[in-house]
UniProtKB/TrEMBL annotation:
Gene Ontology CC, one term: plasma membrane
HAMP domain ranges (all copies): 183-235
SUPFAM superfamilies xref list: ATPase domain of HSP90 chaperone/DNA topoisomerase II/histidine kinase (SSF55874), HAMP domain-like (SSF158472), Homodimeric domain of signal transducing histidine kinase (SSF47384)
Protein name per its UniProtKB record: histidine kinase
Membrane topology according to the record: Multi-pass membrane protein
Length: 447
């Protein structure tokens, strides 16, 4: 059924439920009606008996009036009567079977209460009867009143078929609102389906708004969030490609122009060695940018997959990275206060974080860099400060976004890689301007 349209599924489910209820009711209703009319029959028999027993003298009634003259009393809903008295003598108005009379006599012999209800068979018909002891007879006398089951059967059958007909009409008519409801519910979903199809084709200019507050409306709001996310992602990809082409174009252009000049016997830097050195520097820049691009793409995969954690000394890695990068700007004054602290995570990823972050400090610092590592409030905190120029507010806001333009007009992935790795490790990084210089703070929760 799941392969049918939603409107058809809703209609089928509604039809099945309605049909199931009808079948259950078709079984319950006859039993309920039979029980009700059985009680009604006994009530009618007792009422007829009470009416008959109000006669001043039962013997006088049977001897003088006769049944035929008082048919209005005994014919109440086809109730018939006869009396058994004086050593099983019987007064009756119509013949009865021997078997039925014997059953009556057995019931009388075992009856303890003045009035009892019974049921039996008279000929081929089921009958209900009530035996009442008559108080005004001098001998032991009993009034037996009975009624055939045909009355009950007729009532049950008539009402049952009327109810079945009514249920059938309701069942048929209910399909109309079911179809309307199914179309009402499926229409916005069909609309969403077409919108999703358009999103898949990168047609996401038109907003998605269903104007509903129910679950379908919330689904539409989620689709609108997805649309906006796709727009932002598309813009980010376009910007990413523009920045990548810009970043790679410069070193490639320098390498090609210097190579062509050397081929033509021209040395832009005065001699062959210095000109080749420029080519080597640009090739190294190009290699670094390509490695960053590849690593940034790798981080997208790692964000959604678990990585191998290990416990390692963060202070040792900091010292190692500083020792390797400090020579890039030997005039800088380094101040380090590192507590011996271990953290859990991917050791090589944290090494890349520190390399990118410290390289950034060296690039912008004027004379000093300070690094502090300490433990507070169940967190390991790393603070790196440099006395370089403050970061502009608009740049600071998007400092860790890929290809954000830096103070010197350069685009890069370094700080974006730092931020991505730190997030993967459920940690945070912030940057803030101080009276002198800029401070970066990394908080790593323990446990």
């Amino acid at each position: 059924m799941k392969n049918y349209p939603l409107a058809i599924q809703i209609w089928i489910i509604f039809a099945i439920i309605t049909l199931a209820i009808s079948l259950v009711l078709s079984g319950i209703i006859p039993m309920t009606l039979r029980s009700f009319f059985t009680k009604e029959i006994y009530s009618n028999i007792e009422s007829a008996q009470d009416l008959l027993l109000t006669q001043s003298s039962m013997r006088e009634y049977w001897d003088t009036s006769g049944i035929d003259n008082n048919s209005s009393l005994e014919d109440i809903r086809a109730v018939k009567h006869f009396v058994i008295y004086d050593n099983n003598q019987i007064i009756l108005d119509s013949p009865l079977t021997v078997e039925f009379l014997q059953q009556i006599k057995r019931d009388i012999s075992t009856q303890k209460n003045p009035r009892e209800k019974y049921k039996g068979v008279l000929g081929d018909e089921k009958v209900f009867y009530v035996i009442t002891k008559i108080q005004d007879f001098q001998t032991n006398s009993y009034l037996v009143s009975y009624m055939g089951d045909s009355y009950r059967k007729d009532l049950v059958s008539t009402l049952f078929y009327k109810l079945i007909s009514l249920m059938g009409i309701i069942f048929l008519l209910s399909w109309i609102p079911a179809l309307i409801l199914s179309r009402y519910l499926s229409k916005p979903l069909v609309n969403l389906e077409s919108r999703v199809d358009r999103l898949a084709k990168q047609d996401w200019e038109e907003p998605i708004s269903l104007g509903r507050n129910d679950e379908i409306g919330k689904l539409g709001d989620s689709m609108e969030m997805l649309r906006n996310q796709l727009i932002r992602q598309d813009e980010a990809e376009r910007t990413f490609l523009q920045h990548v082409s810009h970043e790679l174009k410069t070193p490639v252009m320098v390498i090609r122009s210097y190579s062509q000049a050397i081929k033509d016997g021209i040395f832009p830097k005065g001699d062959l060695d210095h000109s080749i050195e420029v080519i080597d520097v640009e090739a190294e820049r190009l290699d670094k940018k390509i490695r960053n691009l590849l690593y940034f793409s790798k981080l997208d995969y790692m964000t959604n997959h678990q990585f191998q954690e290990e416990s390692f000394s963060l202070d040792s890695i900091i010292k190692d990275v500083v020792d390797r990068l400090a020579w890039n700007k030997v005039e800088l004054d380094w101040h380090m206060d590192l507590s011996p602290l271990n953290i859990k995570g991917d050791k090589e990823q944290w090494r890349i974080v520190l390399e990118n972050l410290i390289d950034n400090q060296i690039r912008y610092a004027e004379s000093q860099i300070s690094i502090d590592l300490y433990y507070i409030n169940n967190s390991t905190v790393l603070e790196i400060w440099n006395d370089g120029p403050p970061i502009e507010a608009k740049i600071l806001k998007n400092l860790f976004v890929e290809y954000n333009k830096g103070n010197k007009g350069e685009f890069g992935l370094g700080l974006a890689i730092v931020n991505r790795i730190i997030k993967i490790h459920n940690s945070t990084i912030t940057a803030k301007n101080e009276d002198i210089g800029v401070r970066f703070i990394i908080e790593i929760p323990n446990g």
